[in-house]
Design a protein that fits this description.
Helices cover about 25% and strands about 20% of the residues. The chain is built from three helices and four strands, in the order αβαβαββ. The N and C termini lie far apart (about 30 Å).
Length: about 100
């Protein structure tokens, strides 16, 4: 089981602030776009149906997978595979192209 304590201090703080601002999300369909190593996807997958999209296969080699979620490799073009309103919440933070 991964722990947020494994992250660098600045990243721990950032994630805690974002997660707190989002509130207690439960029973939702969540898209984590630009998921990186899946820290946020993993966090929300405990109580939600999460789909994560990340363009870097190398980054996914270290993905956090303590909870079940769908991980896809891709970018903006991958979004066309989903129907409108497929997700209740979209998370997209710190995404650089």
């Amino acid at each position: 089981m991964h722990s947020i304590a494994e992250l660098p201090p600045w990243e721990r703080l950032f994630k805690r602030v974002v997660w707190r601002q989002m509130g207690g999300i439960e029973g939702r369909r969540v898209l984590d776009f630009g998921s990186g190593e899946g820290v946020t996807a993993n966090h929300f997958a405990e109580k939600n149906e999460v789909t994560a999209i990340e363009p870097s296969e190398a980054t996914l080699a270290n993905a956090w997978r303590d909870y079940k979620y769908t991980q896809m490799v891709g970018g903006v073009e991958t979004l066309s595979a989903f129907d409108d309103e497929a997700f209740d919440i979209v998370i997209c933070h710190n995404v650089l192209e």
